[in-house]
Amino acid sequence: MVLDFDTTATTTTTTPPSPLSSSTSTTDRLLVGGKFIAYYQHGNKTITEHVFQDASLEIVDAKAPFSYELVVTHTPSSPSATAQALCYDKEQRFSLLPELQLSIHEGYDDPEDVPPSLTWVDAEFGEAFEFVCRPSCIEQNELQSFVKVIRQCMFEHAFQKSHKLMTSEDACQFELPVFNPPLGSHRLAKNTIADHHKLSTTNRLQSKRHLQLPKIQFLPPAGSEPPAEPENFLASIQADLFLFENDNERYVPLEAGVDVDLVNYDPFHYWILIQGDSIPPISHPIEPRTNPNFNKEDKVVTWNYYENNRCYSLLLKIIEEEDWHEFAGAFGQCIFETFSHVPFSKSCKGNQDFVINAHENNVPFDWRDSDDDDCSSEGEAEDEDLDYVEEASLSEDAQRFFSNEAKNSSMVLSFKDNNSCFVFRGGEMGIFSKRDDQQQITLSHTAKMILKDGRHLRQAIPYLGESSILLVDSENQVSHLDLECEQIVNEWKAGGDDPLISLAPSSKYAQATDEPTLIGISSNAVFRLDPRLDGSHKVVEDECKKHIAKTQFSVVATSQQGYIAVGSRKGDIRLFDQLGCMAKTTLPPLGAPILALDISSESRYVLATCSQYLMLFDVSNGHGQLGFNKAFDSNEKPIPRLLKLRPEHIVYMDQPVSFTKATFDVGDKGDKYIIASTGPYVVLWKLSDVCKGRTYDYTMQKFDKPVVAAGFHYQKRDKIIVTLEDDVLLTSRSQQKLPSTRLFLLPGQATRPSATQTARSSS
To answer: What are the coiled-coil residue ranges (predicted)?
Structure first.
């Protein structure tokens, strides 16, 4: 049971005058020239009444502080219009509350056909209302400005404070759902020669009621008792507790002033305990899927809590500054030890501060890019809709490639214009290309990958102008697959005592050149490999650096300039400007293993992939030098910008985050975007937004199957290549949408049926 309470009960403040009238222009809170319509039931019919043919809609102050009303005013343009509305008062008022269930209904591409509208309901009387905007309000951004003011008013009413204190995270709680108009009835037989079917305003609203999102049945958490008496308390504070209700799409207060403890029971096993007077106790372990998000400015922490196979999002509003620092610092320690199983106390003070600051830091990077506009302004044409290729258009080779029992396991992007990507599936590799006369990429070539003794593929790298592929198998052996003759022409190991962990080209785009050497790592060494060397030992000795300590290297990446970044299972990242010597910079760990790395075109940004989050480092020192070629002072090491998904979005996803390799867009035009995937979602961040601290301004696209890998087409940042378990697709950046209930709950983009599915359906 959710209990309402006064969110200001813990503090005593003097309510200031409403800032709406002083900080918001009248035009932003007024829509004119619209129509006001009422809908109500009469028996089995829905009655539509055109109340005012000429009306305005305005947001006004109510009598109570931080309270507002929607006022519909009759503004007749003729005597006949006045006569039509004589039975109603010329002003109709509605309290601007969540119970109105305000929503936006978009019009068709031509707003003259069906213009956009705002709808709301009065549950007490069982009636619905619609304000139909005039078509020009879209072109003049009037509706967008009006909706922005609505969100500000709803924030002020919910939190009893000025909207000037509203963060981007707060704003997302008050997004109005947007509905697109249906193209027509799903039941009625279509006229095969009919043009695009246009619905009347009445039919459009009724059709939308039949196309509503799946009904969410929200079950509040039952709570759970702590498993035992804690051994140690890391932090104990009081805070206000909120719960995200996904059916209402907002956080609602549970109780003010609950007791919150961070405790541990065994080494590296931490729990969060919440006790209140009117709620059941909540206790759960801190684990990778907890996904904590910190907002230092508002002293708010949100995270995910799992109970009975259900995912919830909790929010703590911490009142005291001292409590905030105690709780955020202790939470960072818990996360570090949970991931790394290394005592936090063994880290030096600088590294401890690094961990704490990374989780609660909100200071933007120094973003100086003068071209901060969307890439589409550069003249790159975007495809509004990229239709998927029908199964009948697939070649026999493509049908066979997708029909075997294996699944697509990995994808490597091509850096040559005639190819798009290399996809690996079981014992085969497929090369996918896109011709100018095609919208989709198609399978152009396949090759068998013959790995000995049932070994499985661990890594693949295009080589020698992409005429070959180097295959690293589970026994750390490298097989050279020549694509022209489709045969393994050479096999070798790195040599030495430690097995090869990972390979990288000598520079970021070297795979498209004739460069023969590579960069390799073992668990404690970084070295250059030259396959042309005689014998089984391919390491160039004077370009090898072994570390005495157990560095646990896991992944390596190179930049366009040949700089090298090496990540480890411990979570630290080393930056090298050359081989055979120590790293110039070591970026401390946050605890999670580094799964993948990428470096921006100018080597300024290093992007690290962890399972639950991404880390973006700005490795410039502000004096024209990079961390690759000059060490940072101990107190000036760059704090990463953490890229996570909002806990409330994960509630809708109903599955923990598990990021695939994150990359920048590729090409010589500079970096604009960061792309990754988790589950059936492709996630996109704009680099300039991230650098300015807007880490939650991401867009998403949902598919009907899990995404194996996603990346930008080389030199075409408006096109994204997506590899699913049984398909490879080309999609458009314009198909990425802001996260919404509609995106999460409706089915994802359908993929092409595989040959196996086709055969199964025909039988």
So the answer is: none
Pick the CATH number of 232-360 from 2.30.29.30, 3.30.1780.10, 2.102.10.10, 2.60.40.10: 2.30.29.30
Under a CB-based contact definition with an 8 Å cutoff, are residues 50 and 201 in contact?
Answer: no
| N- to C-terminal Cα separation, the chain | 51
Structure tokens at 468: 């070959």
Measured CA to CA, the distance from residue 187 to residue 733 in angstroms comes to 33
| Least confident residue range of 463-467, 630-634, 643-647, 696-700 | 630-634
Structure tokens at 320: 């005291």
Instruction: Please indicate, yes or no, whether the overall pTM of this predicted structure exceeds 0.85.
Output: no
The CA distance from 699 to 731, in Å, is 14
Q: What is the CATH number of domain 493-643?
A: 2.130.10.10
Domain 20-184+198-210: which topology? Answer: PH-domain like (2.30.29)
Element (H, E) at 35: strand 30-42
The amino acid occupying position 535 is G
Tens of pLDDT, residues 95-117: 998 888 898 887 544 444 567 88
Residue closest to 616 by CA, chosen among 644, 583, 578:
644
The helix (H) or strand (E) run that includes residue 305 is: strand 300-307
Q: What is the Cα–Cα distance from 578 to 362, expressed in whole angstroms?
A: 33
Domain limits, CATH 2.30.29.30, in the chain = 232-360
Degrees (nearest 5) of the Cα angle 360, 366, 370?
A: 140
